[in-house]
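Protein in question kept underneath.
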Amino acid sequence: MNIVWTWDVVRRIIEVLWLINIAFAVWTVFRSRRDIASTWAWLLVLTILPVVGFILYLFVGRQLSHDEIFSIQDEQKQLRTKYLEKQRKLSEEHELMPKGSRLSRDRQLVNLFLSLNDSVVTFNNKVHVFIDGKKKFDKLIDDINHATDHVYIEYYSFYADNLGKRVLVALENAAARGVKVRVLYDLSGSHGTTFKFFKHLEELGGEAQAFIAAAKAYFQTPRLNYHLHRKLAIIDGKIGYIGGFNIGDQYLGEDPKFGYWRDTHLRVVGQATMMMTVRFAMDWNTTCRKTHKKKIDLEKEFKNFELVAPDGDQDEVPMQIVSSGPDNENYSIRRGYESIISSARKYVYIQSPYLIPEDSVLEALVIAARSGIDVRIMIPCMPDHPFVYRATEYYAKYLVNNGVKVYKYNNGFIHSKTMVSGSNIASVGSANTDYRSFRLNFEVNAFAYNEKLTAQLKQDFENDMKKSTLLTPEYFANQSKWRKFKQYFSRLLSPIL
């Protein structure tokens, strides 16, 4: 039978295919539990981009399976309550600030993280702040070179470039002298790094694996969501690193595209390091379910660990290690940010390379600014992801028009993820102020309660202001219509960026 290809026939075929596409899009999106914003964003993409949209969904939209989520939660349950009861008793007996009231801001934040995240607070920590990658990695490599028992490395990006090789050599040397070396990295975040990169390390007795990826992960469909975005390094259970730097040459400011790389990382000596070890152990053991590598013996690892009360030292930094991810719906870091913003009395300073806040954070910022709180946010002057940056510009404009002071950092690329407020509240970690960090990535932050540390981070922010431009309503009003269109369009996709 011959078909006469008239325009009417073609139109009907297109209509049928379009209806099939919509039905399949609805089934694809609604079969997984999502928040309303991301559900509508994916429906938009799948509807207006019938073929390309489904390819994007295959790589970006797939969620973790229930089995994966259960395995992660199961590992966490084994460890999280181990010290919680003693922690609660210490929390009842001691104040973080000697003269603070029982319902002071820091105590409220501590209680919030205890409730949401079982995040114990440790008191006897000494902290050094790094804002320059070269200094940070020189010190990290030096600490690895002096390790005697174990080195645990957990990074979103572990590139096979000059810095990556320098760190790897230090790890190999540590393994060669009998130190237990374990490396956990994100497969998608470590572009160009293959399993072969760590072959010699494993020959020397060290171990490396990609987070929740099978041993032969390159045979799997890549998942571009649900990254291991944490940045941790633990040496001998005594020294810990936490913050925003990844392992790669660009984080040393050696990428001509970005120039100087401005980030923030903490080197911690004290008991908070053990809480970083707890986080690493849970992530490592979860991944071992797929790779069949040897798990960390939790009882052996922490048999000598005892929480201690504060000793009154002005230099000690009370600290909670708080994590979040798609394996739970407590959104601990996001709610911590909301608590800091909503309870601010004088100021809130935020640095984030991506500014795509959920409505609750967005409105908390506006309410604080409209109430007379000095709210300042610093973002980069250039994009590393075009759609993300245009969405960042959209929200920056909205905040500027509502009384928030937004600064564009001009001295290279700012990747720092910090929040400081009041006399003694500060957060440094891996979580950006965006949907991805709040809902899609596995993140970890240090929330610290110390006047000297907070003052230092506040001063770092103010120093960066000298290298920044204060954005105004006129700045945005003078942008081209095409740029404004890209901002509005990117904003529609913000829940899935």
Observations:
- The chain has a mean pLDDT of 84.
- The radius of gyration is 24 Å.
- DSSP finds 18 helices and 19 strands in the chain.
